[in-house]
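Weekly modeling sync, notes
Attendees: AB, CL, MP (scribe)

Item 1: holo prediction request
CL wants a bound-state model with adenosine-5-diphosphoribose before deciding which constructs to order. AB pointed out that an apo prediction alone won't tell us much about the pocket. Agreed to run with the ligand included and paste results into these notes for async review.

Input as submitted:
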Amino acid sequence: MRVLVLTGAGVSAESGIPTFRGKDGYWRNLDPTKLATPEAFARDPQLVWDWYRERRERIRNARPNAAHEAIARLARATDEFLLVTQNVDDLHARAGIPAERMVRIHGDIFVTRCSRCDFSYAGRGGSPEPPGACAVQPTYGRLRSIAATFEKDADLPRCPECHALARPGVVWFGEQLSRNELERVEDFLDGGACDVVIVAGTTATFGYIIDWALRASQDGAGLIEVNPEETPLSRFATRLVREPAAIALPRIVDELAN
Ligand code: APR
């Protein structure tokens, strides 16, 4: 089987991570132009860092839910599989999706990268394993000092290489998607039509999400939408599942895997 799965914030909602545009979503109370744009960061980096640190802590205290686990199970049971997630949390990874089968199209909240040079530090992530790999391989002592710098809650982290301000490794509004990640999606789509496309927990706000879902399902593949609410993709779906993802996805994966 050849399967493409596209996910959004709704898949992490049942792990206690707020969505953006749903009820109690971040963007209901907070202004994205004040928090998730390069201009906002230039204007008030402390405000932006405070918000991302709050989100990092919330994700650290969260656990993958049955939706994340079901998608990981489907990945293991499927020959050709790709998960494209808009989520910057690491719950898909912690549920066991291998990096080579996942594209994090909006980046990784635990990565800290330089706002000027290409230094980046993968951070500790949500689960308490030791510090991750850095793009620039410093000595362990240096790694500890970098980790300490980036994990300290007060200061504005600075790049250990060029001393410019460091920022969270996410894609902000108005920024380009990573060329490398885009190529990985295109390579998968060029690999032929899918048998099943699952779109779960997203308002499909961005055109590329709709484009990828339709291209992957163009030859009559099943396009399954899992979302309690209607989205711009609903009218193209061959199956609408208006249920929470942690309820619906384990059942759908059972059906597909058997
Ligand atoms: N199960 C399934 N879907 C759910 C659940 C749930 N338990 N709870 C909410 N949803 C649905 C909502 O109905 C909504 O359609 O998830 C969707 C969440 O939509 P958004 O908040 O817009 O999140 P997302 O689509 O991921 O946003 C895309 O926008 O703000 C940027 O970069 C940010 O990656 C994000 C992108």
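Recorded for review: Strands lie at 2-7, 80-85, 102-104, 107-114, 120-121, 166-170, 196-200, 222-226, 239-241.
Action items: CL to compare against the apo run; MP to circulate these notes.
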